[in-house]
Amino acid sequence: MSYSMPAPLDVKLMNVTATAMFGGVAILMLAVVSWWAVRHPAFSIARIVVEGEMLHNNAVTLRANVAPHLTGNFFTIDLKDAREAFEQVPWVRQAEVRREYPNSLRVILHEHEPQAYWGPETGTAMVNTMGEVFEANVGEVEREGLPRLSGPEGSAVEVLRMYYALDPVFTAIGAPVDALTWRDRGSWLVQLDNGASIELGSGKPEEVLQRTQRFVRTLPQITQQYQRTTEALEYADLRYPDGYALRLRGVTTVSREKALEMARRQAAQQQKDSKKTRPTEGRH
After folding, report:
1. Staple partner for 256: which of 132, 137, 245, 251, CB 3.0–4.6 Å?
2. What PANTHER family does the record tag this protein with (predicted)?
3. What is the 3-state secondary structure (H, E, C) of 190-220?
4. In a domain, 90, yes or no
């Protein structure tokens, strides 16, 4: 029968000390290597690759404008700060930034797609297709005929959604929406590209849309009574529960009662005419 003697205390202390020393040396070497890597010129950001569909920016000017705001090297650069630096560039909506070893950054940019001007005509704000407001050099807008939308702060999404609903209705009579305003008190005002102004009133979006559709549907019937076309429309007020008032170029203002009466008369005549032209069934 054999057994091992426990190591003397001094031997244990030597082993522990040696292990600690080796560990300390390893940590020290790792720190030295890290210090060298962090500061070595080979890892400085030397290349920025920019991708994405860019209509209002180009890779050269982007790198020139953003590079001075980037601090650190491949290991130490803060990607969040880098992303924010790119997103401060006009027209840039979103930037995705990632490292590419050993000394590069790859940036994928998404620009705003302008859908309308936003706010007063003296401003430089625009709204994109997602209802986000952004500042831009409006002189760089390629698309002509963009409408101007306005409303209370934070209402861009709702105003853009209403524009999407109303524009096809007015386009059907050859007068697309040129401007749409949502006032603080909740009423809507629309200007058409033929110069006409229309008070749409307030209410839920579907209620406003229904009033507008009814107006557009009956407008040709009323303009015909005055030997005019819908292009003669100058002003209309739809803020009445039983009709609307309008003003035609060259014609005295038509009251809501008169407009409603004329629309009903025309509708009744059309219904009567349709009955006359309907084929009759033979008797057996």
Report:
1. 245
2. CELL DIVISION PROTEIN FTSQ
3. EEECCCCEEEEECCCHHHHHHHHHHHHHHHH
4. yes
